[in-house]
Write a structure and sequence with these properties.
It contains 24 helices and 8 strands. With 568 residues, the chain is mainly alpha-helical. The radius of gyration is 25 Å and the shape is globular.
Amino acid sequence: MDLLWLSLTIALLFGLFLGVRPLSSPDEARYAEIPREMVALHDFLTPHLNGVKYFEKPPLFYWIQAASIRLFSSTTNKNSYPQVAKTNTALSTPFISEWVVRLANALIALLGCLFLYSAARLLFNRRTGLLSSIVLATSLLYFALARMVTLDMCLSVCLSGSLLAFLVAVKFPLGGKRRCLCYAAYGLSALAVLTKGLVGIIFPVTIVGLWILLTHQWRILNKCYIYSGIILFLLIVLPWHVLVQYKNPEFLQFYFIDQQFLRYSTLIAQRYQPNWFFIPILIAGFLPWIAFLLQAVAEGWPGTRLQLQQKSTQVFVLLWIVVIFVFFSFSHSKLIPYILPMFPALALLTGNYLSIHFDQRSSGIKWGVISLPCIWLFFGVLGILWLRCSHAADLAKPGIPFVLAGYGIFLLTSVAAVIFYVQYGIKATFIWLACGSAISFIVFSTGIPRVDIRSIKPLVQVLQPLLQPHDKIVSYRNYYQDLPFYVNHRVLTVDVVGELNFGMQHQDTTQWMLSAARFWSLWHSRQRVFVITDKASYRTLQQGTTYLIATTPRDILLSNQPIKKKNQ
């Protein structure tokens, strides 16, 4: 009954208004387009992005997304490359709905919450399981990424599932249950590798190894079915790696050296941030439950060697948090979602703390509740300063009412939580905070399209009714990640390299990745060409005859010929 209730509640939370906003660019758009091309090309071995080989990530999440597209969308353009075909009658095919490509991520996030509930119930008790899963689902970063197309959620669920399966397995005696749980740990670790590479095995080995070292439980190694587990791991991981290398000899060097090692240890990805970058991300991302995290850490911290054994579960969870946080803090490539795999551990630690003090009024709970309005006032001041200082403030104005509404709801919820705690205790306060967070986060997410104006969807909606067979669509000097997805086929590009550079070196892309000379030849021909570009690049296009069609605050849609609507 608990699993059913959690499934329905969290599914509603993650699924509400799932398709109302455009894909965020670049990440959502990229990870929606790659599986769309898999379906269109019927090639599930070699990932492609705008027809170019794309080896930055393994394929598991792409496969899941492709399955969702095949099941729930009938609009996938079977001819992925109509712009180089002799005829094209499918250019105006409606684009795939955003909820189709977000659905898989929401379901994976839901699965992560159910994994946490089941493990926490076995490790501690039923109440800890319920509280932990709710804490996870209503923490800001987990909620946000559950409603986005991103590999990090799939990685997080596979990693946390692997670690939780191991932790639960060692609680059972030798037998069928322990064997199944150990195999689940190996299998989920393998799936994590197939989602985002070597971190899928590095984290479990490091965390489990340090835990065994600290708690002196070396005998566990003889009871973890290591040899058969390694065979299972390799049976899952190796086939794709071997086959893709066989078909693409350039794969291993780029995938393992450039994308796994150099990406971590050098500035090759151009995503450098200071070592303290993830501290504010952790504080904001674990709202509202960050108010109880320090107390939870203190509660679970082993003060003596004897407590290392008595609190072995809490020690494992603390190592889980520390290893992932430290690993990514010292990486030369940092993005906000990277620390998501530590959030199930944060939720488990916090849920257990709240469960222990659920029937009493502890000073830790009291000061946590009191601190929440202060935390939100602090973030409000930071937000005001950012709006005043940022050059993007004018662009964000349409979304400011939604941001203020979401902020106001949470601030009022935090103030009300203090009153609830004084009058009714932690039970009512927990429910109030969980519900208030959910409502606030949904309001925030509804306002994202009005703040994030990078989406090309508004221009595509203008373009689609105008398209006719043989028309060409060009992305000029800027590769718009969501453009191929929304026009439902590959697009021509001009002077675009970036992340597509490696694939372009190992295949012939000259038919659609155009040089400036080939573009101008096409532009001055009788062929009707539609161009989407940013406003700065638009100036270089004005050397020829141009017809402006539509604009957004950042980008422009134009053509080399006058446009007549189909009904004229």
